[in-house]
């Protein structure tokens, strides 16, 4: 390895301190602190820990890394007929998915959309017909439980993305540390990677489980890297082919399908750095270089250095605060140095930092000034083609338009055209700073009554537009379920608010609100405030409209 910079050394030391503290020597794995679950272990984080142990070296750390790597490989699924072949159990405590009932290779590309859509319709119809006998929710839950005992439920019983995440970590370990590892361990790693890449290629070609951008990039990297390492010409050709497809798709608007996401941009930048440093094929490296430069162009448009956040809207994401569920602050620190060190605080992505330290950063010089200081009030309009994961695979790349207005102390994000069913879609957002320096955010989310916003949900379409000091939103409903549209407000200080039908007085900001919707309910949700508008299927109005304008 090349000598590391001060920033790289800091990232390695901080992440290893965090991971050392949650290492379980008896299990040879990390506890699953990244998901807030201290009663199970994390296979992915353990693979990242092995990278850091080998980077640190000495004092028995190499031996510990070997034990961790063996334990990670114990978690791999090795039945080539199952849809989860080559991926890894998320933890030793995770349930084992059902097997032997799902000949998935017999179906054509995109079959999962039709299967999922059909089963959802059966569940809705069955729960409606039996609602008089048992509660609708109980019937639907029983049906879904029965399905999951026969068909392996993705995300619930296995995570297909662990193939790509762990394979990236293994690639870096083999690249830098193969000579320090026992031969039997290296051989076992190569066999595990053969299974992982085969499973990843089968997933890609079948489109059984669509790949979002961060996984697509990892897929290209591992096919290229291990194709050359294991002399698999078909993997090399596959990587070159899909790299060209990715390049052409990217060139249309200079955007990713996984657009404007602080959560996933951190992963994207990591993999693009791996392609830059370790890519074998010139075609793959060229695609990675163009995409990395273009991604920083997009970040420069939407990043507000004064508010230290990426402006919405977000095609996918968990939190509004950039440093809460993202590595993007880590990349800003690598690029800008000490002035951004406070953006590297430990979060659920910190186990990735050893890989990030090796991947490094390559910000185009013309973008750096916009990352250092607020580059001025502006209205941004950018188009992209989304990946609608649970839509017809022949028509799941809808054209979306993002608008964003960035002022000195307020920024607004809005999205139109999306048909994504994912709750991670945030089509209407705001960030602002009050006069006393406290920062706040607002996002619109949707959920079933008593449910969680992150679930996939059909029949709700939001179109929004941002202007200077103004956010306009229209929501259309085509569902027979009661839906709550929630304006969720959070901040760095307690939220004292006065909410009336036509005016919201929030800390540091007051809006005039024009709402064509039922009267709202205002409720505290922990440290957050929720303004809730409820759609009821029996009502004649199948739309809601909102205009929020700064006073």
SSE layout:
Blueprint: H1 6-21, E1 23-24, E2 29-32, E3 37-42, H2 43-56, H3 61-74, H4 111-129, H5 136-148, H6 162-177, H7 183-206, H8 213-229, H9 233-253, H10 262-278, H11 282-302, E4 303-304, E5 309-310, H12 328-336, H13 353-359, H14 368-372, E6 378-385, E7 399-406, E8 410-416, E9 428-433, E10 439-448, E11 460-467, E12 470-477, E13 483-491, E14 498-499, E15 503-506, E16 509-516, E17 521-525, E18 528-535, E19 543-550
Antiparallel strand pairs: 1-2, 2-3, 4-5, 6-7, 7-8, 8-9, 9-10, 10-13, 11-12, 12-19, 13-18, 14-15, 15-16, 16-19, 17-18
Helix pairs in contact: 1-2, 1-13, 2-3, 2-6, 3-7, 4-5, 6-7, 6-8, 7-8, 8-9, 8-10, 9-11, 10-11, 10-12, 10-13
Indicate the overall shape.
Answer: globular
Kindly state the percentage of residues in helix: 25-40%
The biggest beta sheet is recorded as:
8 strands, antiparallel
The CA-CA distance between the termini, in Å, is 56 Å
Total DSSP E strands = 19
């Amino acid at each position: 390895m090349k000598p590391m910079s001060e920033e790289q050394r800091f990232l390695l030391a901080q992440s290893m301190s965090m991971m050392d503290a949650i290492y379980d020597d008896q299990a040879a794995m990390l506890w699953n602190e990244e998901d807030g679950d201290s009663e199970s272990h994390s296979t992915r984080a353990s693979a990242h820990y092995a990278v850091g142990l080998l980077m640190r070296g000495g004092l028995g750390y190499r031996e510990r890394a070997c034990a961790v790597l063996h334990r990670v490989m114990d978690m791999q699924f090795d039945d080539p007929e199952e849809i989860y072949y080559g991926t890894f159990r998320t933890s030793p405590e995770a349930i084992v998915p059902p097997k032997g009932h799902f000949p998935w290779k017999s179906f054509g590309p995109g079959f999962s959309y039709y299967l999922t859509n059909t089963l959802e319709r059966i569940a809705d119809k069955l729960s409606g017909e039996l609602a008089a006998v048992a509660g609708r929710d109980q019937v639907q839950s029983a049906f879904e439980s029965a399905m999951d005992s026969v068909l392996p439920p993705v995300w619930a019983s296995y995570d297909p993305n662990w193939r790509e995440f762990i394979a990236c970590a293994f690639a870096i370990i083999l690249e830098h540390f193969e000579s320090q590892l026992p031969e039997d361990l290296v051989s076992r790693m190569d066999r595990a990677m053969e299974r992982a890449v085969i499973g990843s290629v089968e997933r890609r070609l079948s489109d059984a489980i669509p790949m979002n951008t961060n996984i697509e990039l990892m897929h290209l990297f591992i096919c290229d890297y291990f194709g050359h390492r294991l002399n698999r010409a078909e993997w090399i050709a596959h990587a070159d082919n899909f790299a060209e497809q990715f390049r052409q798709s990217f060139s249309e608007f200079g955007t990713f399908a996984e657009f404007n996401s602080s959560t996933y941009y951190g992963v994207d930048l990591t993999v693009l750095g791996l392609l830059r440093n370790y890519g074998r094929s010139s075609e793959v490296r060229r695609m990675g270089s163009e995409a990395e430069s273009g991604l920083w162009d997009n970040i420069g448009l939407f990043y507000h250095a004064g508010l230290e956040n990426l402006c919405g809207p977000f095609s996918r994401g968990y939190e509004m605060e950039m440093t809460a569920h993202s590595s993007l602050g880590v990349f800003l620190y690598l690029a800008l140095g000490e002035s951004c060190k406070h953006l590297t605080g430990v979060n659920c992505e910190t186990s990735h930092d050893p890989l990030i330290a090796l991947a490094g950063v390559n910000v185009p010089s013309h973008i750096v000034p916009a990352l250092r200081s607020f580059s001025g009030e502006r209205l941004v309009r950018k188009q992209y083609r989304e990946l609608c994961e649970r839509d017809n695979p022949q028509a799941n790349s809808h054209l979306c338009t993002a608008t964003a207005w960035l002022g000195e102390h307020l920024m607004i994000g809005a999205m139109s055209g999306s048909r994504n069913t994912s709750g991670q879609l945030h089509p209407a957002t705001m960030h602002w700073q009050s006069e006393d320096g406290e920062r706040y955010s607002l996002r619109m989310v949707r959920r079933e009554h008593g449910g969680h916003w992150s679930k996939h949900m059909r029949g709700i379409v939001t179109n929004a537009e941002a202007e200077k000091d103004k956010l306009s939103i229209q929501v259309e409903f085509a569902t027979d379920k009661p839906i709550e549209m929630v304006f969720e407000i959070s901040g760095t200080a307690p939220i004292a608010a006065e909410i009336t039908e036509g005016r919201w007085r929030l800390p540091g900001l007051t809006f005039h609100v024009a709402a064509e919707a039922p009267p709202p309910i205002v409720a505290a949700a922990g440290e957050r405030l929720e303004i809730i508008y409820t759609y009821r299927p029996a009502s004649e109005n199948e739309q809601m409209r909102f205009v929020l304008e700064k006073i």
